[in-house]
Design goal:
Layout (H helix, E strand, L loop, with lengths): L2 H25 L5 H10 L4 E5 L2 H15 L4 E5 H4 L12 E5 L9 H9 L4 E5 L5 H5 L2 E4 L15 H21 L3 H7 L3 H6 L3 H4 L8 E2 L5 H11 L3 E6 L2 E7 H6 L9 H4 L1 E2 L3 E2 L5 H11 L3 E5 L5 E6 H6 L4
Parallel strand pairs: 1-2, 1-3, 3-4, 4-5, 6-7, 10-11
Antiparallel strand pairs: 7-8, 8-9, 11-12
Helix pairs in contact: 1-7, 2-7, 3-7
Length: about 325
């Protein structure tokens, strides 16, 4: 077998072993999983997640996922706990400790603190008879499956299962809280995730910036409105509601009689619109599909409340 084939085989073997471990875990979800979710839902404080070594890295990620999906949480490093950080854990919190063996001495201070102050302790561990599991109120037992590395010692399968079980907790808590996309956006204001969840109402131009005319407006005045507002479009209002829109394309199609026409003669009736609560990504998709550069934002009564330009979406990173 060539070196390249050996490398590919190693990668496939690890992924297959870890994938099978996750399927095994799904089939044997820890009995305490529902009780753990309920305990975390009822917590008056935060979910404190801790661990040491590779389990500590997993614990940090679990805490971050919980915090970003509606469950207040933070990570406490097990080794730093006995040097003052244990003060971050208070009555009203729930403590989740991740440890494959459940015997790491760095966990002792955390365990003692939770016992002293009656703070609920959840253990995520593979050894049911470990000191950690015996001391805990709830035990999320991980299957004792072989690690994926060739020597069977490097934390691989075990950390993958712990990470996945942490994700399962976070998602179950999200669903129990009925966590909404708009709440997710509040916790993700930066980057592409945040941009994808921005609402039209957050980006639209409103008030006097919206180019609007009435049906009898002469086209000479419509051109001034379109030019001064800079969106390349004007909306036609009839009885306070949007009845049509005039775009650059409408101007070209009516060029031979443009200056003798009124807004109603040139406007395209019933233009495509969006509502303020629509996602900006949806508005962008509409503009791309219709090959237009701007879209009017209407209330439920079809009253114009704003206008969104393609460039507004691009500046916000919505793409």
């Amino acid at each position: 077998m060539s070196s390249t084939e050996q490398i590919i085989e190693s990668g496939r073997r690890v992924l297959k072993a870890e994938g099978e471990a996750l399927l095994h875990l799904a089939g044997e979800l820890p009995e305490a999983f529902p009780a753990t979710v309920r305990r975390m839902l009822e917590a008056r404080g935060r979910v404190i997640v801790s661990g040491i070594g590779k389990s500590g890295h997993i614990a940090r990620k679990i805490a971050a996922t919980l915090a970003s999906t509606g469950t207040p949480a933070h990570f406490v490093h097990a080794a730093e706990a006995s040097h003052g950080d244990i003060g971050m854990i208070a009555p009203g919190d729930v403590c989740l400790i991740v440890s494959n063996s459940g015997e790491s001495v760095e966990l002792d201070a955390l365990v003692s603190h939770t016992r002293r102050f009656s703070i609920p302790l959840v253990a995520m561990c593979s050894k049911p008879d470990s000191a950690l599991m015996r001391a805990s109120d709830l035990c999320l037992k991980l299957p004792q499956l072989p690690e994926a590395c060739a020597i069977g010692m490097a934390p691989t399968t075990s950390t993958t299962m712990a990470l996945a079980l942490g994700d399962a907790l976070a998602v179950a808590l999200m669903e129990q809280r009925d966590f909404r996309p708009e709440q997710f956006q509040v916790n993700h204001p930066g980057g592409r995730l945040g941009a994808r969840l921005i609402k039209v109402g957050q980006l639209m131009h409103s008030g006097s910036a919206v180019p609007l005319v009435v049906p009898d407006t002469p086209m000479s005045e419509v051109l001034i409105e379109m030019t001064s507002k800079g969106f390349g479009i004007a909306g036609v209002l009839k009885d306070g509601r949007l009845s049509g829109a005039i775009t650059d394309g409408d101007l070209r199609r009516n060029m031979d009689r443009l200056m003798q026409s009124r807004a109603v003669d040139v406007a395209t009736p019933d233009p495509v619109t969006v509502v303020p609560d629509a996602l900006a990504t949806e508005a962008l998709a509409l503009m791309n599909a219709r090959k237009i550069g701007a879209i009017f934002v209407l209330s439920n009564a079809r009253v114009p409340v704003g206008i969104l330009h393609l460039h507004d979406c691009l500046r916000a990173g919505v793409a």
